[in-house]
């Protein structure tokens, strides 16, 4: 399989491309969605023994979602990006940062690679809530380990992060049918 041609068909907040692909003598077209890479973190407040999540309206899901802190990677530096996003969204400064895993969110159509981190925090520098100029209206939600194990998350990066955390602590998630 070989990409023979890439044509940008829309370049706005996101970029869409039309690809011409050749495979086993056949040529066909596919669309590709480029939103940039993302950095995400499951955030643990070491003083309060709670995990910090954010809740915000996601227009593609047409609802509010409870998620890990995340943002689009800037300057090719996922670690620097997630430190900044944690402070902007939750108000906390990062004490410790550990890389967990990199994965593609939906490789059939999207170029996004998520760089997942585990972050420890203890000092809140601001109220968080995101940036007005980015039209963010973020609510900071703190959950105990017991509470987060019973939440029904709908966001893939958050599910992966919580599964990783449960595995790290050798605990099991509760029923996936738990209430949001």
Automatic annotation (TrEMBL):
Cofactor annotation: Mg(2+)
Catalytically driven reaction(s): GDP-alpha-D-mannose + H2O = alpha-D-mannose 1-phosphate + GMP + 2 H(+)
UniProt keyword list: Hydrolase
Domain Nudix hydrolase: 34-167
Highest taxon above the source species: Bacteria
Presence of keyword Lipid metabolism: no
Subunit record text: Homodimer.
Record NCBIfam families: nudix-type nucleoside diphosphatase, YffH/AdpP family
Record-given protein name: GDP-mannose pyrophosphatase
């Amino acid at each position: 399989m070989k990409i023979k041609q890439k044509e940008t068909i829309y370049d706005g907040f996101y970029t869409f491309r039309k690809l011409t692909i050749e495979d086993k003598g056949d040529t066909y077209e596919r669309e590709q969605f480029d939103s940039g890479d993302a950095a995400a973190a499951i955030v643990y407040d070491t003083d309060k023994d709670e995990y910090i999540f954010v809740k915000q309206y996601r227009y593609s899901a047409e609802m509010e979602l409870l998620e890990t802190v995340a943002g689009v990677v800037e300057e090719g530096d996922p670690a620097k990006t997630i430190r900044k996003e944690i402070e902007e969204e939750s108000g906390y400064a990062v004490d410790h940062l550990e890389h967990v895993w990199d994965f593609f969110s939906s490789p059939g159509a999207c170029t996004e690679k998520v760089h997942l981190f585990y972050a420890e925090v203890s000092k809140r520098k601001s109220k968080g809530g995101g940036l007005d100029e980015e039209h963010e209206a973020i609510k900071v939600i703190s959950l105990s380990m017991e509470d987060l194990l019973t939440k029904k998350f709908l966001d893939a990066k958050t599910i992966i992060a919580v599964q990783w955390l449960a595995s790290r602590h050798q605990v099991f998630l509760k029923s996936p049918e738990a209430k949001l």
